[in-house]
Structure prediction request, 121 residues.
Amino acid sequence: MAMDQELSISQIQELESDLHQLKLDLEGLLDTTESGAKPVTLRDNTGRLSRMDEMHNQSILVANRNLTRNRLKQVLIALTRADKDTYGRCTTCDEPISYPRLKAYPEADMCLDCKGEIERG
Ligand SMILES: [Zn+2]
Prediction:
């Protein structure tokens, strides 16, 4: 199997700025969804949404917020790895993680091979 290429310094700098942007985006998302995640209360104008619908929507929103929070955690970890110059390497096998993968998920800490093995269980 072909090994992925080492990242260039400019690629790492680009991905680090992606990480910072992603951190801001995720924090912003958590801010804007904060009020919707509060327990459903009866509102003056119930409109077409029943209380059940509102509770359903709220539970989806809470689940999404949990995913966002977890991703933010991964981003923060990736930023500390960038400080220690271990960014862009698989934490399991120490091989470089491919640039396209990091471009899609700048917080990725495992190469596809290792990640795939974990998902196969
Ligand atoms: Zn690996």
In short: The two ends are 21 Å apart (CA to CA).
